[in-house]
Amino acid sequence: MAFAANSKTRKIVDYLAEGRTLTAAQAQARFGIKNMSATMSSIRDTVEAYGNWEVTTDLAKNGATKYGIVRA
After folding, report:
1. Residues 12-54: pLDDT tens digits?
2. CA nearest neighbour of 72 among 44, 45, 48
3. Alpha-carbon gap, residue 40 to 8, rounded angstroms
């Protein structure tokens, strides 16, 4: 499943593909995402399907989960 060109999900994938990370609060403020966990689950299913990308998680200094993607 590909992401529509101007969808919020596509914007997040493009943002993360640049090597950046996002927390749920940042995703809501920047992209209007209300359920980051569900969004990242959808992204993970799609980008990891062919083994080219891997979704990463880490903890921010404030304890929030940071999501990213890296080439596998």
Report:
1. 999 999 999 999 999 999 999 999 999 999 999 999 998 899 9
2. 48
3. 12
d(CA 11, CA 72): 20
Q: Give the β-pairing of 65-71 and 53-59.
A: antiparallel
Q: What pLDDT, on the 0 to 100 scale, is given for residue 72?
A: 86
Under 8 Å CB-to-CB from 70, ≥6 apart: which residues?
19, 53, 54, 56
In the three-class reduction of DSSP (H, G, I as helix; E, B as strand; rest coil), residue 31 is classed as helix
Neighbouring CB atoms inside 10 A of 67's CB total: 23
Cα→Cα distances 36→17, 28, 50, 51, 72, Å? 16, 8, 22, 22, 22
